[in-house]
Amino acid sequence: MEIHPNGDLLCAAFLRMQKVQAFNEKEFVDVYSRHHRQLQHIVFGFAKDSLIAEDIVQDVFMSVWERRGKMHIDSLPAYLIRSVKLAVFKSVAANKLHQKLIAQHHRPETIQWDEQVIYARFLEEYLSAVAEQLPEKCRMVFKYSRQQGLTIAEIAVIMCLSSKTVEAHLTRALRTLRLSLA
Q1: Single pTM value for the model
Q2: pLDDT 10s digits, 84-120
Q3: In whole angstroms, what is the distance from residue 127 CA to residue 176 CA?
């Protein structure tokens, strides 16, 4: 655990967060050099493909570099590990779904599926899976709003909640879905 020269742990944590936000290229290359092999090993353990492992690790580091001014990270190594695991999950899920859709709809006599149609179906199923993991009331508000087309006022009456509470649940659901796509 890093301790600031004056002994203040909170100050040390704040300095670590500032370091991520103020990365320059040399520091970023140093972080990459220290962590990329471990991250590739983690990804390879799940994906069993060294090219995919390299791509995922590169994508995570690119994301960190591009968002470095907006990020507030307490532990960069922990953040990187979580990020590559999530990226592996998304990659494996996308690949499985892609293969499943092709297997379900592959008939030699029919025309080939358009990639956009396959991607749209994957996206719909992926978002449904993410929505199912929302807290119960949040999930119900989302379903009423987006799947049944009800207004906030109608949802508030059905669920016996205030309109502000319904808005808060819907905002949380949409934020969670948006972050899952990032």
Answers
A1: 0.47
A2: 888 888 888 888 877 887 777 665 545 556 677 888 8
A3: 10
User: Which pLDDT score is estimated for 129?
Assistant: 85
Q: How far is CA 38 from CA 26, 29, 54, 75, 176, in A?
A: 20, 15, 11, 16, 28
Instruction: With respect to residue 118, please indicate whether it lies within any of the assigned structural domains.
Output: no
Burial class (CB in 10 A: 0-12, 13-18, 19+), 88: buried
Give the domain range for residue 94: 1-113
Read off the CATH number of the domain in which 145 is found.
1.10.10.10
Torsional class of 80: left (φ above 0), alpha (ψ -120 to 50), beta (otherwise)? alpha
Residue found by looking up tokens 């092999």 in the block: 37
CA-nearest of 61, 73, 78, 79 to 25 is 61
